[in-house]
Amino acid sequence: MKRSWFGFLLLVVLLALALTVTWIMTEIHRPVAQDLRQAAEYALAEDWAEASALAQRAQNGWEAWAHVRLCFADHTPVEDIDAEFAALDAYRAKKETADFAAACLALKEKVDAVGQAHGLTLWNLF
Fold first, then answer.
1. What is the DSSP code (8-state) at residue 121?
2. Residues 6+ apart with CB under 8 A from 44
3. Spatial separation of the C-alpha atoms in residues 3 and 110, rounded to whole Å
């Protein structure tokens, strides 16, 4: 009987850990996506100081949680997003408004997709 309780307790702990990870993955991607969307809006309005600051904050937010993301996320989309952040730096340096805004919006969609793929949904529980 003790083994049954130990197994049940272990399953409860693993379920709590899985739910915590899905919540964390959703929460760490939301501000990055918001900053990228706002950076695109400011770039289209020709406010390069604010657009640059928001893009940098988004990149810092993305890199700050890299260790968590690398433990739980699929590496292929994460590596693509890392490469696109590097391209975003090039657009920002050249002040190419349309390319910068398009890259910000594309990155926002990819960051949202990574967050949603690991978000808390009913099918993640079963």
1. -
2. 97, 101
3. 44
Residue environment code for 25-57, b if the CB has 16+ CB neighbours within 10 A, otherwise e: bbebbeebbbbbbbbbbbbbeeeeeebbebbbb
Which residues of the chain are modeled with pLDDT < 70?
Answer: 73-75, 118-126
- Digit-coded pLDDT (tens) for 78-103: 788 888 998 888 888 888 888 999 99
Interatomic CA distance for residues 33 and 83, integer angstroms = 16
CA distance 77 to 51: 24
What is the residue whose two structure tokens read 């292929």? 76
Category of 121 on φ-ψ map: left (φ > 0), alpha (ψ -120 to 50) or beta: beta
Look up the pTM and report it.
0.78
> What's at 59, amino acid-wise?
Q
User: Which positions ≥6 away from 40 have C-beta within 8 Å?
Assistant: 51, 100, 101, 102, 104, 105, 108
H-type alpha helices, the chain: 2-44, 48-64, 66-72, 75-94, 97-117, 122-125
- The radius of gyration of the chain from alpha carbons, rounded to an integer in Å, stands at 18
